[in-house]
Write a structure and sequence with these properties.
Elements (H helix, E strand, L loop, with lengths): L16 E2 L7 E2 L20 H9 L9 H4 L17 E12 L2 E9 L9 E3 L2 E3 L6 H13 L7 E5 L3 E3 L4 E9 L13 E8 H5 L4 E8 L2 E10 L2 E3 L2 H13 L2 H5 L3
Parallel strand pairs: 3-9
Antiparallel strand pairs: 1-5, 2-11, 3-4, 3-6, 4-5, 4-10, 7-9, 8-9, 11-12, 12-13
Length: about 260
Amino acid sequence: MGFRNRSPAGLAPVEQGLATTRPTIKIISNPPVPEISSPLFSLFDQKLPDKLRCLLEGPLPGPEVASRFEPGSRVVKHYAAPPDGAREAAVLVLLYPSLGQWHVPLTVRGEHLDHHAGQVSLPGGAVEPGETSAGAAIREFHEELGAEGLNVELLGRLTPLYVATSNFRVEPWVGAAAQRGDMRPNQQEVDRLLEVPLNHLLDPSHFGRHQREKEGRRFEVPHFAWEDYLIWGATCMILGEFITLLGRLDEQNERW
């Protein structure tokens, strides 16, 4: 089902990624890149899921790197305790092999939706009554992208974050699959599937900043660039924590 008109990454444009075709943005020349030492995976590392599981059991870097990846209008403390009454949501950062390297699927919300058409997000949605956040992340992935029968192994959870505009506390789960699966976007919710190589996200040349305006105020917004899209807001924050965590693999590789 997904969030439809109540995306976990936010109801306001400053909380989610939009296609670069939107006229309200201005790319900043020669943007600074985050201080990330993540190694590029030039070869397909079949042990990556096991290594990630170990990393996810340790301290998570979300709050430490928030300023690198969250919008410059930081009015909301995304990693602070959510207020009473906040709703629960979950998203999935899925790794799967394709063409000899790991990929992560992202979605572009349908242009026919009444609100936030064209936003880039991770598969995810609201946690339903009686459901765990882990179960919601997997269910929403299948509802948005199909791939029925694909076995998704959850490796652990990234740092939960609060999105004020939609009043959601979002739990990002990391999972892995042994194959791509038959992913077909649900046209009622997803306009396009973006299959982003992990190496692309790890390459600092694909990270930048752009300017946005809200209520007469201009501010800088970090983003990952992929094709004609800027991936920013809550999705950028989640992916930013993820690749920062991958940067610790240099230390961990000594034990493998």
